[in-house]
Amino acid sequence: MEKVLRTPIPEEEVRRLRAGDVIYISGLLFTARDEAHKVLLERGAPFPLEGLVLFHCGPVVRKRDDSWEVIAAGPTTSMRMEPLEPEFLEKFKPRVIVGKGGMGERTLAALSKVGAVYCHFTGGAGALAAQRITGVREVHYLEELGIPEAVWVFAVERFGPLVVAMDSHNRSLYAEVGAEVQRNLEKVLGRTKEG
Question: What are the pLDDT digits (tens) for 32-71?
Fold first, then answer.
């Protein structure tokens, strides 16, 4: 299934999504890597996050006169946020997380509890992502954290394609692929021992 979701995204719309679905996002997404997660959890959010899209991204931007231009906005490795993500999800309730590489069991449980999904965006496609960003709405903690770690709020139109890799029904494509790899490895090793 391919679907365009517009922010703020209601919980019931996210709960209809299943692992393997392809979605696009229109509306607002915000970036937050590990340092930004810590700051937001400690101080609270400077704008409402519920229903928005959390993008694990350290964008490449440049200032043009009085506005920002996004050059590239590729995903960063999401597992770095695993220690903080369950608490972040429960406190702020973003409905979609975008990143690469997947997340762990604690985040999968929080996705189910809160009603959110984790979506995979292809690594190395930061220039493609930037083409779907129609503007920078806000930036927070820029002086304190620097460009990659700051919280950027982007307006986007048909941002994607994003593959729902972890859904709100406790299904993780990463876990399934990992289990399949392990089964195949055991078969190969078993044949090697026998041969």
Answer: 999 999 999 999 999 999 999 999 999 999 998 889 999 9
Catalytic (active-site) positions = 37
pTM exceeds cut of 0.85: yes
Burial of 142 (0-12, 13-18, 19+ CB in 10 A): middle
Decide if 169 contacts 116 (C-beta within 8 A).
no
- Report which of 47, 165, 152 is spatially closest to residue 97, judged by C-alpha positions: 165
How far apart are the C-alpha atoms of 18 and 90, rounded to whole Å?
20
Domain at 181, CATH number: 3.20.130.10
Tally of domains within the chain: 1
Residue for token digits 């409402």? Answer: 48
